[in-house]
Task: structure prediction
Amino acid sequence: MRSTRGAQRSLVVLTGAGVSADSGVPTFRDAGGLWEGHRVEEVATPEAWARDPRTVWRFYQLRRAALQEVEPNAAHLALARLERECAARGEGFTLISQNVDDLHERAGSTVLSMHGSLSHLACELCGNVILDTQSLDPDRFVPCGACGQEALRPDVVWFGELPRCLDEIDAALHGATHFLSIGTSGLVYPAAGLLSAARSLGAETWVNSLDPPENLHPRDRFHPGRAADVVPALVERWLAD
Ligand code: APR
Result:
C-alpha cells in the first residue's frame, strides 16, 4: 500500500462470502444462484417467510447448525490482528461484513454486520433479539423468551429489507484513506456501491477476490486469489508501511 507515513490512515474493510469460503462456508453464487438447492426468493425474502415459514426456518436452522462445524481462517484472523494493531497505533479501522456467519466475531473482530447474524433470532411481535446458537432443531420454532410467542425469525436481512449500520458505514467511508473489498461479487446493493463510494471520496481502493467482481474499476488495485492467502499478506504490508 502507498506510504502515508505522517498522515492519519484510516482503513475500511468490506467482506463478502469469499472471506469465509476458505473456512468451508459455501459462497452464494457458486452453485448457479442456488443456496442449498433453493432459489433466493424461496428462502430469503419476507414473502417467503409469510408464505412458507417451515421451509425458511428449516433452511436457516441448517445454516445455523453448519456454523458449528467451521472455524475462522487466516483471513479472519489477520483482520482481527489488524484491528488490534490499528487501535494501538491510533489508526482508523472499520470492518463491515455482508456475511451472516459469526467467523469475524469468533476471530476477535468488531464488525458492522450489514445483513444481520445467523447467531441471533429476533421476535417479530415484541422486537426482542437474542443470541442463540443452541436451538438448532430444523423442525421446531423457538418461543420468544420475552413475550412467549413462537414468533422468532432468523435475525438476518432478507432481500427487500433495509441493510443495517448504514449511518456508521457512511461515517467510516467519509474518513477512509484506504478501502479493501474482500470476497464479494459486487452484485448486491447497497454493499456493492461501497467500493465506488470510497473511491469517489478519495480513498485508495484494494480488491481481493477469486474472480474480478462486477464493480471492479481500473483504478482499484486487484489482488486475485484465495482470501486466506492474500489477506494475511496485505495485512503484513499495511503494518510494515
Ligand atoms: N477467496 C477470495 N474470494 C473468493 C473465494 C476465496 N477463497 N471464494 C470465492 N471468492 C469470491 C468469488 O470470486 C466471488 O467474487 O467471493 C465472491 C463471492 O460472491 P457471492 O457468492 O456473490 O457472495 P457475496 O458477494 O458476499 O454476496 C452478497 O448476496 O446473496 C446475498 O445477502 C447475500 O450477503 C450476500 C450478498
